[in-house]
Amino acid sequence: MKSINPNKAKNLETLFPILAVDAETDIIVSKNADLTVAFEMKVPEIFAISDSEYDTLHDVLVRAIKILPIGYMIHKQDMFIEDDYNPNFESEFLQSNNYVAWENERHFAERPYLRHRCYLYITRPASSPLKRTSQQSSLLKRHLVPKEIQDPKTWIEFTDIVNQFEATFNDSGKVTLNKLNKDEILGTKTETGLFQKYFSLSFDDEALYDLETKDGLKVAGNTTYTYAITELNDFPNNLQNSARLEQFSTDSSHFPISTGSTLGMMLSCNHVYNQALVVCDGDAMVNEMVGEVRRHYSFSAWSKENEVSISAKDAFMEEVKANNRKVVKAHFNVMVFHRDPEIADNYRSLAAAAISKLGFKPKLATWDAETLFWACIPGNISEIGTDNLATCFLEEATAIWNVETNYQDGFFNKNGVLLTDRFGRPCMVDPFFAPLEKGLISNRNFMVIGPSGSGKSFTMNNIIYYLLSHGVHISMVDVGHSYKRLCKLMGGRYITYETDNPINFNPFYMKDLNPDEETKDALANLLMALWKKDGERSSKSEEVTISSIVHEYYVSLRRNRNDGNDIFPCFDSFYEFTQNKYPDIFKQNQGRSEKEFDLQNFLYVLRPYYKGGQYDYLLNSRQNIDLMDLPFVIYELDNIKDHPVLFPVTTIMIMNTYVRKLFSVKGVLKMLVIEEAWKALAKDSFSDFLRWCSKTVRKHYGSLGVVTQEVDDLVGNAIVKDAIINNSPIKFLLDQSNYEKRFGEIMQTLALSEKQANIILSINKGKNPNRPPYKELALLLGDYCKVYGVEVSKTAYGTFTTERREVEEIQDLAQNKYNGNLENAVKAWANGERTTVFQP
Predict the structure, then answer these.
(1) Is residue 3 part of a domain?
(2) How far apart are CA 834 and CA 184, in angstroms?
(3) Which of 157, 303, 390, 748 has the most Cβ atoms closer than 10 angstroms to its Cβ?
(4) Is 759 within the bounds of a domain?
(5) By its UniProt entry, which InterPro entries does this protein fall under (predicted)?
């Protein structure tokens, strides 16, 4: 590898400052005999941290650095490299699913995003870096001779100190250090090593490139610009660990972000952010300053600048003595780069603006850009030079470190839902499986709260689509026809009430006629609910008798089947059995109708559901007898939501069907999603079921989901609070800005922390106008909270939309142009096609 100089070419193999990586200890040894241990640093995700957490994180940094002896150096290197999203169209997921997933991947193909890797190096310099200048860089001198590392105790002592440093980070629970081994540092045939990443300015490129120093520094063909912060005078008067991010804040909420993020994730271009410091002897530095102050005094009469310098140094020395402050020498530089010189020049402006925003004076490195790049080679930070170091306190130096990274959700997850991070990067978010395995949640119950216009139904369509694609079984109770199109496209069963096709079920049907105890209990509960009024209590003898009727009914069906007299299981045959055969069984069991069970009253009350009765269609279906086996069933109750009989009976039947499914279907997550219909289920007669379901379904690989629009439905509803909110650790909250002034009520009802409230109130704030239309939601998993974007392809949008005009346009295309083929109609609509009826 050669470095091209306008005057002379230099052989980098000869100049390269790293001597070796020790195979046993993985310690990097420089040609100056400096020892360095390299770590990959896992930092928290951006936009998900509170002010107090930033302070705690900063305390961890300070506490760990204080472990290091005087003279040690820390070099933190954050690499931010632009990349494009590259879908894997050959993946099993895309090959096995319909057009929606495919079109979504096409939509995000080549979407730019910023990849981030954070490395931290601890160096024990062989000689004091404060006695070197940048002019002594090994890049400029070829006569370096490797120094002998003489004493084995040096290695042992260095390793012990590094281990203490690492433990302080890893025990904090805030930041994780993973020590890099020799292969990770040097690379292998298949993996890019640390030095390759630095010299190629890429995470994946295994090639080594020339350095060009003519007309500025070029690295791997990239034009680079470097800004350095090296002087104390460059520092602003005040440095905090975090700052208010105005674009995500409101009049009543404060959204924090780390101070260092301005040169980290918030600088949205190719860049490397180097943060370095030397642990100094504070007493020695104070003594040195005393001598400087004396010299300044002798010239103070002739120079006002000397008086200012005296005042500043006096204040610095007082702070060291009074508060026992840790003194360090610090250096920061930001290198931006791009292959296109014009783009690189634009990035230079972005970097200068970011540095100015922090309160620093941006100073472009010109003659020393090469030596700064060279000094920041992993393991070579001791060559930074004392002329590139500013004296400051440890707390201030670390306040502008980058301590955040982008969302860690992957591009694909076998249980994920497609969303985006706040920068627009697509990611598959797993709310239901991984969080339970990690202990973030205790069950998979969830709530979705989205006021009118927030995109609640659209978001639910997106979530349900991906869950179905991953094999989850979903039973959904809806009011409003928001999921009819999705149901048809996904091959689901859509059960609704129409005059010529009334809603119907058959909870009695089962192929083997041998229900387990849970199924028989569910049927008994259904019958009890049909018999008794709301609030009317049942006696123990009544419960026992109904359970007995159910049991004997199936005994009779099995006996008849064995005799060749197969009777179809349904409410009609159950009623006939109860009327004709069970009285004898009741007497044999010494039952007394006047005391234990009023059989005649039971038959009289249930007569409307028997053939010839007003509701004889409701429980005698011969079509909907396979609901246990179907992955997707929607019960649309819009036409009966106000019916005093059909609505409560139907909802009870749905719940009992779900309970049966819980016990009969094994190996898949069984989800019950209740849309606005849940308000009817919150009546006293259903409160026991809600409590049971919310607390018990987790034991049977189930999940209860409740979707609501109005916050008023939650506030003050004891049943909902006890049965649903307290047992739903997963919450999807959409735009709550309409409730900003009364958000305290929501916080109290949902038991939200101040951190979560600030994050939730940032929803849809600061949206990127250059992205396709999207809305945001907050995902809460216990104490964890992040905001994601809901953005899909135009085709997926056509599948999920609930806007009336758009729904009608798609239906019209399907009926009048595509012979009822809804999929083709959605694709055509997404491409801008409309019938003459809907032409503008």
Answers:
(1) no
(2) 56
(3) 390
(4) no
(5) Conjugation_ATPase_TraG, F-pilin_assembly_TraC, P-loop_NTPase, P-loop_TraG, TraG_N_Bacteroidetes
- Sign of the alpha-carbon dihedral angle for 28, 31, 35, 40: negative
Q: Give 214-279 as a 3 state SS string.
A: CCCCEECCEEEEEEEECCHHHCCCCCCCEEECHHHCECCECCEEEHHHHHCCCCCCCEEEEEEEEE
Q: In this predicted model, what pLDDT tens digit does every residue of 172-204 receive, in sequence order?
A: 988 999 999 999 999 998 899 999 999 999 999
- Residue ranges of E strands in 535-675: 632-636, 670-674
Nearest to 22 by CA among 160, 209, 217, 155: 155
Last residue of a domain, one of 364, 379, 399: 399
C-alpha torsion sign, points 257, 260, 261, 267 = positive
Whole-number Å distance between alpha carbons of 811 and 809:
6
Q: Write out the DSSP string of 480-508.
A: SSTTHHHHHHTT-EEEE-BTTB-----TT
Cβ neighbours for 815, distance < 8 A, ≥ 6 positions apart: none
Question: What distance in Å separates the CA atoms of residue 560 and residue 564, rounded to the nearest whole number?
Answer: 6
CB of 767 closer than 8 Å to CB of 776: yes
For residue 472 the two structure tokens come to: 């989850």
3-state secondary structure of 704: strand
* H-run or E-run covering 102: helix 99-108
Q: Tell me how far apart the alpha carbons of residues 374 and 341 are, in angstroms, rounded to a whole number.
A: 21
CB 251 within 8 A of CB 743: no
Question: Whole-angstrom Cα distance, residue 323 to residue 496?
Answer: 73
Q: How far apart (Å, rounded) are the C-alpha atoms in residues 711 and 449? A: 8
- Report the interhelical angle of 456-469 vs 99-108 (nearest 10°): 110
Beta-carbon contacts of residue 253 (< 8 Å; ≥ 6 apart): 740, 757, 758, 761, 762
Q: Amino acid identity of 506?
A: N
Q: What is the pTM of this model?
A: 0.89
Question: Is the torsion defined by CA of 314, 319, 320, 326 positive or negative?
Answer: negative
- End-of-domain residue from the set 399, 418, 448: 399
Residue 634 structure tokens:
């929607």
State whether residue 424 is helix, strand or coil.
coil
d(CA 601, CA 546): 13
Largest CA distance in the chain: 121
d(CA 496, CA 504): 8
Q: Confirm if 657 and 619 have CB atoms less than 8 A apart.
A: no
Please, what sign has the CA dihedral across residues 600, 603, 606, 607?
negative
- 241-285 confidence digits (pLDDT tens): 999 999 999 988 999 999 999 999 999 999 999 999 999 887 666
Number of independent structural domains in the chain = 3
Q: Return the higher-pLDDT residue of 535 and 393.
A: 393
Distance, CA of 368 to CA of 228 (rounded, Å): 10
Does residue 426 lie in a domain region? no
Structural domain range at position 808: 803-840
Residue 705 belongs to a domain: no
Closest CA to 680 of 717, 716, 715: 717
Nearest to 629 by CA among 500, 520, 491: 491
Strands 73-84 and 211-212, by their bridges, are unpaired
Q: Which two tokens stand for residue 113?
A: 């995003």
In this prediction, residue 232 carries a pLDDT of 59
Question: How many other CB atoms sit within 10 Å of the CB of residue 236?
Answer: 12
The H or E element containing residue 562 is helix 540-562
**Residue whose token pair is 């930001």:** 334
